[in-house]
Design goal:
The chain is α+β, with helices and mostly antiparallel strands. A hairpin with a 4-residue loop joins strand 1 and strand 2. It is globular and about 45 Å long. The model has no long low-confidence stretch (mean pLDDT 82).
Length: 92
């Protein structure tokens, strides 16, 4: 049986994968991470991968098909519920 530190590690790896996929321009892989997600920010929200892809197609700046970004995550704060069914993460 895994413990909460294993859950935190999986969330950290997911965040790193998110950055890697987006920065490399792998939009198929990137949106697949969010197949069951609801994503909201100050400007919009999306449900599922196709809405997320449409958001980036409308709003993203791409050069030669790539976003030319380098995501860096700091101040990572992860809260795993004691029953380990849900977790929240925030970062800068």
């Amino acid at each position: 049986m895994s413990d909460i530190s294993d859950d935190r590690g999986e969330i950290e790896n997911l965040l790193a994968r998110y950055c890697e996929l987006f920065d490399s321009g792998d939009m198929d892989g990137y949106v697949a991470l969010f197949s069951d997600a609801h994503i909201a920010n100050h400007f919009s929200s999306s449900n599922g991968p196709e809405e997320l892809r449409a958001f980036f197609e409308r709003n993203g700046l791409f050069y030669d098909g790539l976003p030319q970004t380098r995501h860096v995550i700091t101040n990572l704060h992860i809260e795993v519920e004691p029953v380990r069914q849900h977790a929240k993460a925030r970062s800068y």
